[in-house]
Model the fold of this input.
Amino acid sequence: MALETWLIKVKKTLSYSLDSARVAPPLKSRLAIKKSSVGVLAFEIAGFMSKILHLWESLSDESVARFRSESICLEGVRKIVSNDDVFLLGLVCAELVENLRVIAKSVSSMSKKCQDSSLRCFDRLFDEFANSGHDPHGWLMGSKEWTSKIKEMERFVTITASLHREMDELVVLENGLKKSLHCKDHDAAIKEQKIIDLRQKILWQRQEVKYLKEKSLWCRSFDTVTKLLARSVFAVLARIKLVFGVGHGHGWYNPSSLPRSLSASALVYPYENSNSFSHESGPLAKNPPNTHEDHGFFGSNSKILKPPSTTLGAAALALHYSNVIIVMEKMIKSPQLVGADARDDLYSMLPDSIRFLLRARLKGVGFSASDPVLAAEWREALQKVLRWLSPLAHNMIKWQSERSFEQQNLILKTNVLLLQTLYFANQEKTEAAITELLVGLNYIWRFEREMHAKSMFQNCDGFLNSQGFC
Done:
């Protein structure tokens, strides 16, 4: 009997110990879990995911077709950037790869906080995958799994963005409560009720924030989010290489290891000596830029993105010239509203090279601008130049502003490619076009002023005649 009682006590003690272990994990384990959570870095990670999703979308079949039919066919691109389709498609590929490389660099920094040794080696594994296609851990996903991961990332981005908004709202409410507590309101009852309402709102808001933290990236571990990002980066790189034909014939990829959605049968590439398109199997460009092994895949792409010495990008003038062109565009639309000060401001924006060209063009030009036929011809000529030059200038401003926007927002939309801007534009050709705009603007500005002065004189003369002064 005594033995049975003792056994019952032991059983109860063990049962209680096991239950306690289930309810409250050891302190060391709890600290490890807390330490591995990404916490406030969730917002930065959501930004990475948003960029990956946007990159993937830009590699859809529709977007790929637009690279060929629209992006590299802009009149301005053809006139002052290049007429070489292979070169232009190489720029598209290199920019997409560079965008992915920047994301991968951030993922690499975050991977150092992971417990998984393979994730801590992400940078080496990613370079190896880029250069040889070797994927020792099987991170490249199948079609169904990748589709599921896309939805998972979209959900994380949306919820984390909501968390950001709700946390901002919580800060606003808490600051409002602090002000109310220190406010010297004459009606104590109103003040007390206001404080009660604010405290209740703060309580609800904290519950909402807590709920969103649990659902968002905030409470996920570094290992979890890093692996998701790493595998996503692998998938996007595989898509880029397949779309642009990089590594074809060199054993870069094994078709059976790629997601079905990456099948080349859906890609579009040009027939030789034809402007039509084929939906047959094959890369976007039949002769993609060669990536030399000595530089590695990313090193070779970085070299492609380096602007030649003859371009505005190399001279650091792309953004400045874009502003000059946009100012002139506004003046050409309404030359009668342009004052002498505005002209002086425009002239002060011009570098010495354009001033030299402008002086040479205006040398020997008379001061009279009273020919309406010539003015009409100049207007038509200016519109023709602006028709192809203005889109590149506006794209340059948009490209720059989108990258500033990326620094402040979780959900990103970058739609302008660098080749669609003035970055790779030939400096000499661009300056010649700008000079042409300046000469034409000079004529129609003087024409408008002379016509205005003539009209004023006639009106004044008519008034004096009506008053009997003449």
